[in-house]
From TrEMBL:
<protein>
    <recommendedName>
        <fullName>GTP cyclohydrolase 1</fullName>
        <ecNumber>3.5.4.16</ecNumber>
    </recommendedName>
</protein>
<dbReference type="GO" id="GO:0003934">
    <property type="term" value="F:GTP cyclohydrolase I activity"/>
</dbReference>
<dbReference type="GO" id="GO:0005525">
    <property type="term" value="F:GTP binding"/>
</dbReference>
<feature type="region of interest" description="Disordered">
    <location>
        <begin position="1"/>
        <end position="145"/>
    </location>
</feature>
<keyword id="KW-0342">GTP-binding</keyword>
<feature type="compositionally biased region" description="Low complexity">
    <location>
        <begin position="107"/>
        <end position="125"/>
    </location>
</feature>
<feature type="compositionally biased region" description="Low complexity">
    <location>
        <begin position="36"/>
        <end position="49"/>
    </location>
</feature>
<feature type="compositionally biased region" description="Acidic residues">
    <location>
        <begin position="8"/>
        <end position="20"/>
    </location>
</feature>
<dbReference type="GO" id="GO:0005737">
    <property type="term" value="C:cytoplasm"/>
</dbReference>
<comment type="subunit">
    <text>Toroid-shaped homodecamer, composed of two pentamers of five dimers.</text>
</comment>
<keyword id="KW-0378">Hydrolase</keyword>
<comment type="similarity">
    <text>Belongs to the GTP cyclohydrolase I family.</text>
</comment>
<comment type="pathway">
    <text>Cofactor biosynthesis; 7,8-dihydroneopterin triphosphate biosynthesis; 7,8-dihydroneopterin triphosphate from GTP: step 1/1.</text>
</comment>
<dbReference type="GO" id="GO:0046654">
    <property type="term" value="P:tetrahydrofolate biosynthetic process"/>
</dbReference>
<keyword id="KW-0783">Tetrahydrobiopterin biosynthesis</keyword>
<feature type="compositionally biased region" description="Polar residues">
    <location>
        <begin position="22"/>
        <end position="35"/>
    </location>
</feature>
<dbReference type="InterPro" id="IPR043134">
    <property type="entry name" value="GTP-CH-I_N"/>
</dbReference>
Amino acid sequence: MSSKFEISDDADELNQEIDDTNFPTRSNSISFSVANGNGSTGSLNNGYGPFANRRRSSSIRRTESEMTEEGENGEGGPENGGLSHHQQQQQQQQQDAAMTLDRNNENGENGSGTTNTANGSSSSSVIAPGGLNRARPTPIRTTSLSGHEKCTFHHDLELDHKPSTREDLLPLMSKSYRMLLSSLGEDPERQGLLKTPERAAKAMLFFTKGYDQSLEEALNGAVFDEDHDEMVVVKDIEMFSMCEHHLVPFYGKVSIGYLPCKKILGLSKLARIVEIFSRRLQVQERLTKQIAVAVTQAVQPAGVAVIIEGVHMCMVMRGVQKINSKTVTSTMLGVFRDDPKTREEFLTLCNNK
C-alpha cells in the first residue's frame, strides 16, 4: 500500500536544488517513517543540516520525539548526540513547557494551558505544529504588587496567589512541631505525643489569630453619632498575648478611656480591639500604643488613654523567676497627655474597685 504522503520526483529535485543553494547539507542521509491515516508508513530520504527544520519541500513534519530518537541512534546533526543547536533549543522548550503544564495540573487547572501569576498576568503553554510545546516566559514575581498590600500570607513561590486560610498552614506547622519534639529527644510516635504536633499547631494559630483580623472588621460599623463629650472608660478587659522574644504567654488587664467628639464606639468594640492586637506576637509596650491608636482611628476622639497591667511568663517560668512581678504600661493621647486633670480623672476611675 502506498503512503498517503507522496512527493513527485520533479518537486523533490527542485526542492533539493533550493536546499543545496540556500542551506548547507550533510553528505549522509537519514530515513524515518511517518504513519499515514491508514496506519501504513511512507519512507523519505533527505540530507539535512542545522536549518533542515525550515524546509518547505513537503508537508511532512517530524515530531520532536522522532528527532530525539534519531539523535540517540547517532544520526542527524554533528554535535551532542546528533541534534543540531536549533533542535536542542526546541527540546529544551518542550521540557520547560511540560514542567509548566505539570505545575498547572497541581493547581487544578488541567487543560487550560495558562498559569496565573500574582500580578494577574499569565504564562501560556502553546502547542506548535509538529507536536512541540512552547512556553512563554513567566514574569518575575514579587510580594509588593498592587492589590496585595494587605495580604497576610503571601506565598511568593506559588503559581497562583491564593491567600492561604489558617487551616492550610497546619500541615507545615505540625511537621515543624514534630521535628521540635524529635530534637528534644522525645519520641513523636508514642501515644501521648502522637497528635501533639497538630494540637500545638492549632493552638499557635489561635494564639496569633489577630494577624487575620482588621480594625474595620472588628468595628463592623458600630460607630454612632452622639452629642456626648464626657469621659468613657471600660476597664479590666482580660488580655492574653504571646511574648515575641520567648514565645511564652503574658496576660493581664486592659483599661481604656476616651473623650468622645460627637461620636461614640460600641462598648464591646473596645474589647474586640484589645483582642485583635493582643492575639499576636507582642511586647506590652507596643500593644498599649496600638490599642490607643486604633481607638483614635475609630472615632477621632479628643483624647485616648490606655493602661495595661500584665504578668509575663518569661519572667515567671524562666530567667529571674519572679512570680509576683507585674508590668504596667500606659499611653496617653490628646487631652489625656496635655491636661493633668483629665489624666488624673482617668487614673482615679481605673483604680476604683
